[in-house]
Amino acid sequence: MNHADLMALAKIPLFADLPIAKLDELEEKSFVQQQPSEAVLFEQGDSARFLCVILSGRVALVGSSKAPAEDLQEEHTKDEAGCAGHDREAIIEIFGPNEVVTIAAIVLNLPYLMSARVLEAARIALIPADIIRDLLQDDASFARATTVMLAKHWRLLSRQLKDQKLRSGTQRLGTYLLTLTEGRMSGPADIALPLDRRTMASWLGMSVENLSRSLAQLKPIGVTANGRAAHINDIAQVRAFCLEDGLR
Amino acid sequence: MNHADLMALAKIPLFADLPIAKLDELEEKSFVQQQPSEAVLFEQGDSARFLCVILSGRVALVGSSKAPAEDLQEEHTKDEAGCAGHDREAIIEIFGPNEVVTIAAIVLNLPYLMSARVLEAARIALIPADIIRDLLQDDASFARATTVMLAKHWRLLSRQLKDQKLRSGTQRLGTYLLTLTEGRMSGPADIALPLDRRTMASWLGMSVENLSRSLAQLKPIGVTANGRAAHINDIAQVRAFCLEDGLR
DNA sequence: ATTCCAACTTGACGTATGTCAAGATGACCT
DNA sequence: AGGTCATCTTGACATACGTCAAGTTGGAAT
After folding, report:
1. CATH (domain of B92)
2. Are residues B106 and B37 in the same domain?
C-alpha cells in the first residue's frame, strides 16, 4: 500500500489512534485494489481473510435466496457473459468511503454470511485479517473504536429490521428519500439518487416494479422522480406520511 | 447486588476476565430486579442509564410503529390500565439468561432505539452505564469481549434482515422451528415452543392470524402444533422447504 | 362440573406485493 | 438521424398478507 493511501486510512476513526509502528505494518502488509462496478469482492461462505476498507466508491453486502449456480440445470446455458440469472437478492448494508466491511466476520473468524458487490467503481484497501485480530488483541484503543463502530451498525440494522417488519414498501421508500435530504425537517429538496432502481429495490426489500409503483404513489404527497433525479415539494409532508403508522 | 448474583455475572463471557477490584465495584453499585411478565424495562427514547444483564427469564426488544404518545389526541383516553391498544409492534431481538441488553445504546451514549418488554418473569442485573463506559475505557479485555458480542449480534440481525427481505412468512416460521431443534439435520423432533402466538408473530414479522395459517401450511410437510407443543416428522423435509438456499 | 375468558383458529374479504408481459424512455453506437 | 439495447414504467393477474369477524379450544375460578 502506498503512503498516500495510508494517510487516507489513518484519518478513519478506526485507525486514527494507531501508533506509528502499527501504521508501518499496515503500509507494508496491506494492499489496495481498484474494482469496477459489479465486481464481487467475496462470496457468502468464503473465509474472512481481509478487512476491506473503502477508500472511494460504494459496496453492498448482498444476501441471495436461490441455490448456488452449480446445481442448476445445464440446459439453459444462459450464464454467458456473467448474466447472473434472476435469483432474488437482498442488500443488507451499503458501505461508502471511509467505511469498513467484514469486521464482524474477522472478529469472529467465521466465513462471510453474505456476498459483497461493488455498486460504484471503488478503491478498496485490503488488510490481512491477522493484523486486525492482532490489533484487537494488543491495542485497546482499536478495540474500543471497533466496539463503537459495531454498535452503530447494530443500530442501523435494528432500525432497518423494524422498518421491514412494520412499514409498507412505500413508507420505506419515503424514509429512504428522507435520509438523502440530510436531516432537514421541512421545505423542498432536490435529491440526487445514488443508486439505480434495481439496487434501490434490493435495498428497500421489494421488486423493481413495485419500486416504480411506490414512487408513483408518492406523487400525491409531492414527490417526483425522473431517472436519478428526485424532488420533494415539502419534506414535512413526506415525513408525516412515512413516519406515521400504517395508513392506506 | 448480592454475592451469589455477582458470581453468576462473573461467569458470563463479557465479565469473565474482570479483575477483582472491578467485580467489587460491580457488586457495590449494581442491583438486581425481579420483573414479572409484560413488565417494561425501558421505552424507546429513554436515555441509556443501565446495562441490563438477564440472569433468568426472557426479554424482548420491541419496536412499535405508532407515533410517540405525546403528539396523539387526548380525546380517546383509552390508555387506562395499561391497555396498550393495538399498535402493531415488531420484536427485534429476544434475550435469554446470561445475555446483555442495551449494550449499543450505552457504548454510544444515545437514547434507546427500542423498548424492552419482559416475556417471561425475569431477574435482571442493572449495572450503571458509567461503570460500563469506564470498563470500556480502562479494560482492554472487556472492550474485546464487547466487540465479540456485538459482532455476533450483527450477524444475528443481518441474517434476520435477509430472511425478512426474501423469505415468506411460512418459511420464516419453519426456520424458527428449526432453531428450536438445536441443529439436528434430520429425523423427528418434539418441540416445546417458548413463546405464545402473539410474541411469536411479532418475532417473525407477521400477524397472529397469519401465524396460525402458516402453521397450517406446514402440516403437509410434517409439522403439527398444538398450543405450545409442536412436532416435526422429519427435520430434513422442513429444512428443504425453508432453506432453499442452503445457508445456516 | 359449569362458567367464563383469553388465547387460538378459521373464514371472508380487501390491500399489498411479486410475477409475467408489454410498452416507453433514454443513452450510446454507427 | 436511425437503430440497438438496457433501464425504467405500466398493466394484468396471481399470491401473500393484514384485518375484521366469527367460531373453537383449553384452562382457571367458582
Report:
1. 2.60.120.10
2. yes
Q: Distance, angstroms, CA B209 to C1' C29?
A: 56
Q: Does A122 share its domain with A191?
A: no
Return the residue in B156, B162, B167, B206 with the most chain A beta carbons within 10 A, the one to mutate for interface testing.
Answer: B162
Q: Are residues B203 and B148 in the same domain?
A: no
Strand D nucleotides within 7 Å of a protein CB = 7-12, 16-21, 26-27
Whether residue B247 lies inside any domain: the answer is no
* Domain C-terminal end among B109, B135, B163: B163
Regarding whether B81 and B97 lie in a shared domain, the answer is: yes
Residues of A with Cβ-Cβ distance to B93 under 8 angstroms = 158
Do A157 and A173 share a domain, yes or no? Answer: no
Tell me which residue range forms the domain holding B71. Answer: 3-163
Examine residue A129 and state whether it is found in any structural domain, yes or no. Answer: yes
Is residue B6 predicted with pLDDT exceeding 80?
yes
Percent of chain A with pLDDT over 70: 90
Pick from B144, B163, B182: which residue ends a domain? B163
Which CATH number covers residue A219? 1.10.10.10
Co-location of A116 and A148 in the same domain: yes
Cβ separation B143–A147 shorter than 8 A: yes
Query: Is the confidence at residue B141, as pLDDT, over 60?
Result: yes
C-alpha cell at position A230: 428526485
Which among A108, A159, A245 has CB closest to B152?
A: A108
A150 vs B61, B110, B150: nearest CB:
B150
Q: What is the dihedral of CA B7, B38, B158, A154, to 10 degrees?
A: -70
**The three-state (H, E, C) secondary structure of chain A, written as one string:** CCHHHHHHHHCCHHHHCCCHHHHHHHHHHCEEEEECCCCEEECCCCCCCEEEEEEEEEEEEEEECCCCHHHCCCCCCCCHHHCCCCCCEEEEEEECCCCEECHHHHHHCCCCCCEEEEEEEEEEEEEEHHHHHHHHHHCHHHHHHHHHHHHHHHHHHHHHHHHHHHCCHHHHHHHHHHHCCCCCCCCCEEEECCCCHHHHHHHHCCCHHHHHHHHHHCHHHCEEEECCEEEECCHHHHHHHHCCCCCC
Residues facing strand D, Cβ within 7 A: A 196-198, 208-209, 211-213, 215-216, 225-227, 246; B 88, 168-170, 205-207, 209-210, 214, 226-227
Residue A86's pLDDT is 56
Q: Judge contact between B104 and B7, C-beta under 8 A.
A: no
The pLDDT > 90 percentage for chain A reads 86
At A87 the pLDDT is 74
How many domains, in total, are found in chain B? Answer: 2
Interatomic separation, CA of residue A248 and C1' of nucleotide C14, rounded (Å): 11
